[in-house]
Design brief:
The protein folds into three domains: 203 residues, FAD/NAD(P)-binding domain (3-Layer(bba) Sandwich), CATH 3.50.50; 96 residues, D-Amino Acid Oxidase, Chain A, domain 2; 47 residues, no CATH class. The protein starts with a strand and ends with a helix. The protein has 13 helices and 21 strands. Helix 1 packs parallel to helix 9. The chain is of the alpha+beta class and 385 residues long. The strands form five sheets. Strands 6-5-14-15-16-13-17 form a seven-stranded mixed sheet, with helices on both faces. A six-stranded mixed sheet has the order 8-2-1-12-19-18. Helices cover 37% and strands 26% of the residues. Bound molecules: flavin-adenine dinucleotide (FAD). The site of flavin-adenine dinucleotide (FAD) has 37 residues, from helix 1, strand 17 and helix 9.
């Protein structure tokens, strides 16, 4: 079977690798060479444990030894991850994953897909460099996927978060990640160190506030870390400066009702969606790299056996968790507990209780799911350890 995969990010490159190894003919398309996609690049312990190539490969990555949580009222909690936690440059990660796909036999074309038509059981795929045909079409083309729209899967503005920030060149070698919660809107800002730069970013619900407000909030945080950089950003004529390159991007953050209706595969019209194109991102934390790779593995398994099982497979593997995260999202960011915002109380509790601290640490590192979270939190809070 000839499969056309649109997008060679973590989802598309991984699927190309898995299917090529199993004898499929793979045409992998990406509009760009490997690039620094707007992303924190955080790869959780869960991802490192499950995908050996992320853990053991030679691709440069920054290993993290502490996670600092900061509340809107500047309460701080620092925890050490129980297992490895890594930060990748997306350019380096993309380069490595594409090479693995090519080595397994996939053909990579650096072409934007302009259109795709399904007729007589085949797909005709249009690029500026000419047309291609395929038996099966996979959309792995990210949050703003054109393939998703072409196959008729609709997301609404409520299904997205919006993020912006700066990648800042640095010679510093930090091994600490910062996450700060915000009081005005539901979301957080971060500092993620990479091998040669720091990714500063802020994310919240799409259209929940203005980009100008988000920038101001992020610059205030940067000022607490690097005054010189903050004043450079405040006085810059454009968004970027010589050492700080600006980015802005959408992140899928599906609503509960969208999770309920979502179909990521049609075996009759022979298409499927994976990764961000399918909305497979944790609505609470924004983690998407793991789910991009995991959904690629599940689709490969389904295509080798029974492709119509794909929807059932991703739902069973992580769909229920994601739906639960979507349910918790509003309460987590806007909820109050005993007269204070939940995030403030959470950090206060965690400072006093080792058990709660451990739950929080595991949640950030991807080791604690949302289904069962309440029970574990309650058990930890009342264990008085
Ligand atoms: C600001 C920000 C911070 C984030 N931080 C983290 C984090 O720290 N950890 C984490 O796990 N996740 C994070 N995420 C989410 C993560 O970036 C995504 O979930 C992940 O990249 C999804 O992989 P993907 O392969 O599905 O899509 P992408 O990585 O977006 O890849 C899609 C590819 O498709 C290509 N493409 C698009 N349209 C076309 C077309 N028409 N023709 C050909 N090619 C096309 C693009 O060039 C791109 O290379 C973050 C996201 C954002 C926006």
């Amino acid at each position: 079977m000839r499969v056309a995969i649109v997008g060679a990010g973590p989802a598309g490159a991984r699927l190309a690798h898995q299917l090529s190894k199993n004898g499929f003919e793979i045409l992998l398309f990406d509009a760009r060479e490997a690039w620094e996609k707007p992303c924190g690049g955080g790869v959780t312990s869960k991802a490192l444990r499950e995908f050996e190539f992320l853990r053991d490969g030679q691709t440069p990555k920054r290993m993290i030894s502490s996670l600092r949580l900061i509340t809107a009222q500047n309460r701080e909690l620092t925890v050490a991850p129980r297992h490895d936690f890594a930060i990748y440059s997306r350019k380096e990660l993309g380069r490595m994953m594409r090479q693995r796909a090519i080595d397994a036999g996939a053909r990579l074309y650096c072409n934007r897909i302009e259109g795709a038509e399904f007729a007589n059981g085949h797909w005709r795929i249009e690029t500026a460099a000419g047309d291609f045909t395929a038996d099966f079409l996979v959309g792995a083309d990210g949050a703003s996927s054109v393939t998703r729209r072409r196959v008729g899967v609709k997301f609404e503005p409520k299904d997205f978060a919006y993020a912006l920030g700066w990648n800042v060149k640095t010679a510093e070698s930090l091994s600490r990640v910062d996450v700060k919660y915000l009081d005005e809107f539901g979301g957080y800002l971060w500092l993620f160190p990479r091998t040669d730069h720091i990714s500063y970013g802020i994310a919240c619900g799409y259209q929940e506030t203005t980009p100008a407000r988000m920038k101001a909030e992020l610059i205030d945080f940067i000022e607490t870390q690097d005054c010189e950089l903050a004043s450079e950003l405040k006085t810059a004529s454009g968004n970027s400066t010589a050492r700080a390159s600006f980015y802005a991007a959408m992140i899928p953050s599906l609503d509960v009702s969208t999770w309920d209706q979502l179909r990521a595969c049609d075996s009759k019209r022979t298409w499927a969606l994976i990764g961000d194109a399918a909305g497979f991102v944790d609505p609470l934390t924004g983690e998407g790299i793991y789910y991009a790779i995991k959904s690629a593995d599940l689709l490969a398994q389904a295509m080798i056996n029974r492709v119509e099982d794909f929807d059932e497979m991703w739902r069973a593997e992580f769909g229920a968790e994601m739906r639960r995260a979507a349910q918790l999202q509003h309460r987590f960011y806007h909820g109050n507990f005993v007269g204070a915002p939940l995030t403030e109380r959470m950090v206060q509790f965690a400072k006093r209780h080792r058990g709660v601290r451990e739950v929080l640490r595991d949640l950030i590192a991807g080791d604690q799911g949302y289904v069962g979270l309440k029970t574990r939190l309650l058990q930890s809070a009342f264990s008085f350890t």
